[in-house]
Amino acid sequence: MRIESTTDAALFQRRTVDFLSRDPLRHTVIATLLERYVSGLVADAALFVSMHADGAVVGVGLRTPGRPFHLGDMPHAVISGLVRFLSTKTPDLPGVAGVPDAALAFARQWQVVQGKAFRHDGLERLYRLGELRIPTVSGAAHVAVDADADLCAQWSDVMQQETGIGMDPGSVAARIALGRWWLWTDGDRPVAMAGHQERAFGWTRTGPVYTPPEYRSHGYASALTAHISKTLRAEGSQVCLFTDLANATSNKIYQAIGYEPVRDFVTYEFD
Fold it and tell me: What SS3 class is residue 168?
């Protein structure tokens, strides 16, 4: 096996496009981030890694600054070699994320090589949109505009404090400029917000989704997600999303509007 790494997103895309396109839903995180880097929307230094055997790509992975190494599909047997490669290339990895068996194998091997303990740091479930069911909820959706940027940034900051997931004001503004950020308004009040990612290999991932506490339990997040999902599907995209499995409410409401579970992804943090 040969392992190659690069910070050149376009080069990585050329190397791996055939591999990624075979299962784009499995690789939604890597594919979406790759589109973002190639387009220039993100400029920080990511490390793109590909594994090769017999002249073909057999595995992929990605590290973005400050984030765990994200494992794409790969044979279990290559994980130990990947760990040894990354232990010299980027020994300060804060963690690893991927499907449960691969992520756990990586974390255990990292502990052997680096002597660092690891701990479970979250479990997410990937869903795909099946038969969409539109809930009846008071209000309507609209694409956010520049005038909404301050409110959306404030809510994103609160979401970060509540859940650990959020975006800086610049990232929110960039999504708004690209038409990828939405608000649900009931009367004259914005009551929920949601975004979506770039389309990659025919798939678009919705999220993040946030409703301030004072507006919850009215179905706003469900209605907004359903509206965005309907719009994306009408534009020719298949649609998916992630949920935190610790949040029973979000898993319930997304299934209620037609999202079907695909697979789980776990994150381990290194000490």
Answer: coil
